[in-house]
Amino acid sequence: MSKTQGIITSSVGGLYGVKTDDGVISCRARGLFRLKNVSPYVGDYVTVEYENDEPFIAEINQRKNELVRPPLANLDCVVITVSSCEPNPCALIIDKLTVILESKGIEPVLCFTKIDKKEALLLDVYREAGFTCFLNDNIEKINEYIKNKTSALIGNTGVGKTSLLNRMIPGLDLPTAEISKKLGRGKHTTRTVQLHELPGGGYIADTPGFSTVEGKFYGEIPSREIALYFREIAPLIGKCKFNGCTHTGEEGCEVAQNIHKSRYDSYVTIYKQTKKAENIY
After folding, report:
1. 87, 210 in Cβ contact below 8 A?
2. What is the Cα–Cα distance from 139 to 161, expressed in whole angstroms?
3. pLDDT of the residue at 189
4. Helix/strand/coil for 48
5. What is d(CA 74, CA 95) in angstroms, rounded to the nearest whole number?
6. pLDDT tens track for 17-53
7. CB 24 within 8 A of CB 9
8. Cis upstream peptide for 70 (omega within 30°)
9. What is the DSSP letter of 62?
């Protein structure tokens, strides 16, 4: 039985595109994965076996990380695309994403579609927190940063992820849609996850947009660990006046006094939402 190795670059209706040294193979996964409650993800490195000349995904290599929604594996970084106007940028959504990504060892990078006064302030918040930030007209810098990495574009519906990707990969020409003037949000032009090869090497995925972020879709993070994934909070842990400080309003809290209010407000909200979910379940 012949075998070959490759990376899953697309997944549509149970049919997977696996890029190998000999080209892209279209195949299904063996039924044993369903029995084990395992699904192949785009980004998985897999072994393809041939049976009666029909290819099947037979093995999935161990993942270094994964996202359940969108279903992606083995990411080096994620470019969080931030709209300048419609839909309005939401710091809480950005911060939920950075926490989820940090917890999985995936580097969060921010790309702003345009900078006016409001977005310039937001850009400064994330740069001061230690995040790499780009403007979407710096295509060469973005491509250089993600070269030879496996990455993804993630963001709200309508922020312009697909338009950005089309500029990053000349000739790609994926369909885009205008923002709805009535609803103030975009249409879901991207409905599947697919890896595209970058001109300088590596892969990047366009992903379906969203309007909110729920941690349960990405893997639960205990409330006691939330602070560890705010990179400007982590160095302050243990320096508060009282042991066991949750950094949610206690007297003598170093965190509340030393990080930007926007990020602190997000931390408190995420902590309380996580704590509430833990008490329910």
Report:
1. no
2. 13
3. 47
4. strand
5. 21
6. 999 998 999 999 988 888 888 899 999 999 999 988 8
7. yes
8. yes
9. P
Which amino acid appears at position 232 of this protein? E
C-alpha 80/C-alpha 225 separation (Å) is 22
Is a pLDDT exceeding 70 seen at residue 15? yes
CA distances in angstroms from 4 to 40, 61, 268, listed in the order given: 16, 13, 49
Question: Cα(92)–Cα(95) distance, rounded to whole angstroms?
Answer: 5
Helix-helix angle 117-129:261-280, to 10 degrees = 70
User: 3-class DSSP state for residue 158?
Assistant: coil
**Which two three-digit tokens encode residue 88?**
């309005």
- Cis previous bond, 87, omega within 30: yes
Q: Could you tell me how many residues make up the chain? A: 281
- Model pTM score: 0.87
Half-sphere exposure of 208 (CA within 13 A, CB side): 13
Query: Where residue 270 falls among pLDDT bands split at 50, 70, 90?
Result: very high
Radius of gyration of the chain (CA): 20
- Where do runs of H (alpha helix) occur along 43-200? 91-103, 117-129, 139-146, 161-168
